[in-house]
Amino acid sequence: MRSPRYSPAQLAELLGVEKRRLLDLEREGLLPEAKRDPETDFRYYLPEEVAEYRNRLNMPPVVPSHRRQLFLNFKGGTGKSSISASYGYRAAELGARTLLIDLDPQGHLTRCLGFNGADFSRTLYEVLIDKHDVRDAIVETGMKTLHLLPANIRLSPIELSLMSQNAREWRLRRALEPISDVYDLVVLDSPPNIGLLNLNAILATDDLIVPVLADFLSYDGLRLLFDTLVDIEEDFDYRLKGIFIVLNLFNPSRNICLRSQSALREHYPDYLLKSVIRQNTTIADATSLGLPIFQHAPSSRGARDIDSLVREVLLDRAKRDRS
Fold it and tell me: How many other CB atoms are there within 10 angstroms of residue 3's CB atom?
């Protein structure tokens, strides 16, 4: 996966400022100058520089404090891996030092970033069961603000292996302690089941992001998820800081989608996000190519929807916390 290079117009859009203002501040020496490609004379900026620009413009960081967010739904086929890959990628584009963790032996998140899970000798299994340092399992992606802890089939026996471990429910939380101050944002993508690994993930995270389809099977799955969270709160005295429900593959022309959205608004008003990810083919196309949507089709409807999701969960939340 290559690192993006932003034109002045693209950087201005990322920062939410006018291009003219950006260039004026550069000329005045208040912002670092853009790099130049020696062959094309193309002026560009890199993702790792975005945080510095935000700071120079007196803008708050994308993630004001270290945050861990888990994409989880016990129902399969809701688009967790595709969304979480592009969500983490966009946060990294906005300047957040981001780590993506693949918890699924099928390695879907790993593939969404263009990697073959079979190429890696260390996964979360070696970290949790063999007690390897998590830093030794993390790989670079080609983008300095985005790293990955990959998954492959070696992770498949982890549920059985965890059963014999002491304090087995807290293994992931403890394993992540060495990197607690390294990343602004840790995004975890879970397998679609109720198991010990997902319990570890919930107890290691701050926020839950729940992609759901606009149908009533997904609605029933939500009830199971919230019942499980109540049990976890009672059994482990642990409460998540935030829960966000996002509608995926939403088609406003279909009656079932509108009815599902209405039911979610009625029963989960404190959790349902305003952002929706509309039905489109570009995200699926990007997934098949092993690319985040922002590399495959940055101007597409899918990219705009995931950008809205990132900004609502991260930036809008930070504004509310400061007010």
Answer: 16
